[in-house]
Write a structure and sequence with these properties.
The chain is an alpha/beta fold and about 270 residues long. Helix content is about 40%, strand content about 15%. It is built from 11 helices and 12 strands. The structure holds magnesium ion. Magnesium ion (MG) binds next to loops.
Length: about 270
């Protein structure tokens, strides 16, 4: 549903000659970028992590999301602390537990990491109780919370927002209900004082975030090892400079695919 919905928007925008973000409202023409990194890889330690983030800083990036939850709280604290020290105090730093913790560990970990000036803690709680239990965590942490990348409809997203615990909603337009569903959710989020900050897929989400006021940051991966698509799939895509993604006036999504790479990666449906 998501990709077909996006393709239909692309066609509608092209017929009007407008880029998607302007077709949807055109609140701004650029959006801040956050780089996700810090995956747990065998044989890689804190030194590698710091080296990796220094590489991104040298490329001009100034917001980062790092994985947590794969080790004990103290070991994770040391990883995030090393990154905070390497990037300095003014860089935005998010942490993503990818549903690794129970409530008790999430409270412990979030309080341990509070002094590292964390912009948000994402998906702190295990999948089997990741909505209602957020309320208990919220009462016991001072770090803002993010979640919603696994929700597939606006009803699921609404339930998450009704906890009052979610400050950033990471609902995806590409993998689930499409642009149409995403925009309905963004409207509800605006009434709940929740920022929209969708999970990954910057080629689509940058347009959506630039189209309305409660768009926070777009996520990208700046390493071809983690995301060959961003680096190989497009002959034309938005430019990222100094941690800001810039949109232009190309009608539609503004993308051109590299046909060779499309053949290599795509699945033919017909
Ligand atoms: Mg995540």
């Amino acid at each position: 549903m998501g990709p077909i919905d996006a393709a239909l928007y692309d066609i509608m925008c092209k017929s009007t000659g407008l880029p998607l973000y302007k077709f949807l409202g055109g609140y701004r023409d650029s959006i801040p970028v956050c780089v996700t990194f810090g995956y747990y890889r065998e044989g890689k330690g804190i030194t590698d992590l710091v080296e990796e983030v220094r590489g991104y800083i040298n490329q001009g990036f100034n917001a980062f999301k790092i994985k947590v939850g794969g080790l004990g709280v103290e070991d994770d604290y040391n990883r995030v602390k090393a990154v905070r020290e390497a990037v300095g105090p003014s860089v935005r730093l998010m942490i993503d537990a990818s549903q690794a913790w129970d409530v008790e560990t999430a409270i412990l970990a979030s309080n341990r990491m509070y002094d590292l000036n964390i912009t948000w803690l994402e998906e702190p709680l295990q999948w089997y109780d990741d909505v209602e239990a957020l309320k208990k965590l919220k009462l016991n942490t001072r770090i803002p919370l993010a979640g919603g990348e696994r929700e597939i409809t606006r009803w699921g997203a609404r339930q998450l927002m009704e906890t009052g615990a979610v400050d950033f909603l990471t609902f995806e337009a590409d993998a689930h209900g499409g642009i149409t569903e995403w925009r309905k959710i963004a409207g509800t989020a605006s009434t709940e004082h929740v920022w929209m900050s969708p999970h990954h897929q910057p080629v689509l989400h940058s347009h959506l975030l630039a189209s309305m006021p409660n768009g926070y940051i777009v996520e990208c991966v700046a390493n071809p090892l983690y995301d060959p698509f961003w680096f190989e799939l497009y002959d034309r895509k938005p430019k990222i400079e100094n941690s800001v993604l810039h949109l232009d006036d190309t009608p539609g999504l503004g993308l051109e695919y590299n046909q060779k790479k499309l053949e290599q990666y795509a699945t033919k449906l017909i």
